[in-house]
């Protein structure tokens, strides 16, 4: 089965083709980053208009890349949400119109499900069950994943998402939008322990997280450093030291909460997904994660999986893949997919 995936939830237009036997055979992406950089953030109206402009040419490029035609497509999957309303409508309108014209089914996909299944697109893929650490620009969540469509929320950020904290802090430090990746590059040049920022909710005894207070701590440090400097501005070294301390704080919290989620669930596989999953420090720390279930026991190794770097941030491949998984699941369930116990409240999924 060949599924066309359409992603348009924010500032990336992604179109991909996933074949259930041959894997990912086409993957086209256009990022609007440069367009929004001028405004220091995503301008929703510009985003929607750009998706409309890109969807058709990207689909043609994707079919060409895969050596396929419209007639080969078995279903069209698209991001139904969450995201920017207008941007989602652009993708939804296109996907639904295309599916209707082709006489094929359309599969609405949850954007975060796309992210959390994206590590399954790697050559070395995780087995179920696993804990997923979803760290994107809009969400920071820990989920227990027992199979396709079987997700339990274990904990999440009560305010800013980790990616949002990276972007806001980067902006505060004068870095161009979107600053998350840039901040993490500068952190490599920062010295350890020059600054120490709080680790919010580290000892909250649950899997909730909070990142909004961190940027206030950074702001205070920046203001102090500026006041103390001769020319009233941050030196490059100080800025890099702050980047490092900020990144260390975020990564420490994500590490501790992910570890606790593994202990609580008893799972020994962790999957990291979403844009912040591209962060080198997070990858480095989690790669060394092990669990000591009780004081006198040996540490147990944890298998940690990351999506391939280009699939960490938004893309159509993860939507095509999630769509294909749902298509297969419903094909397997077939006529036997009845719901003997079906509360009315579950009618809208
Ligand atoms: O998953 P994603 O592409 O979009 C959403 O669904 O939100 O994630 C984008 C987020 C942005 O906040 C961006 O700054 C952050 O991921 N990001 C990073 C890095 N690369 C992207 N944050 C930290 N370190 C990075 N290397
Ligand atoms: Zn995303």
From TrEMBL:
GO biological-process terms attached to the record: tRNA threonylcarbamoyladenosine modification
Reactions the enzyme catalyzes: L-threonylcarbamoyladenylate + adenosine(37) in tRNA = N(6)-L-threonylcarbamoyladenosine(37) in tRNA + AMP + H(+)
Binding site residues for Fe cation: 111, 115, 314
Domain Gcp-like: 24-321
GO cellular component, one term: cytoplasm
Domain of life assignment: Bacteria
GO terms for MF: hydrolase activity; iron ion binding; tRNA N(6)-L-threonylcarbamoyladenine synthase activity
Positions bound to substrate: 134-138, 167, 180, 279
Cofactor binding notes: Binds 1 Fe(2+) ion per subunit.
Cofactors that this protein relies on: Fe(2+)
Signal peptide: none
Enzyme superclass (EC): transferase
Tagged with keyword Cytoplasm: yes
Cell compartment(s), UniProt: Cytoplasm
EC number: 2.3.1.234
Keyword list, A-Z: Acyltransferase, Cytoplasm, Hydrolase, Iron, Metal-binding, Transferase, tRNA processing
NCBIfam families according to UniProt: gcp_kae1, T6A_TsaD_YgjD
Listed HAMAP family: TsaD (MF_01445)
Family stated for the protein in its record: Belongs to the KAE1 / TsaD family.
Known role: Required for the formation of a threonylcarbamoyl group on adenosine at position 37 (t(6)A37) in tRNAs that read codons beginning with adenine. Is involved in the transfer of the threonylcarbamoyl moiety of threonylcarbamoyl-AMP (TC-AMP) to the N6 group of A37, together with TsaE and TsaB. TsaD likely plays a direct catalytic role in this reaction.
The protein's name in its UniProt record: tRNA N6-adenosine threonylcarbamoyltransferase
Provenance organism: Neisseria canis
Record lineage: Bacteria, Pseudomonadati, Pseudomonadota, Betaproteobacteria, Neisseriales
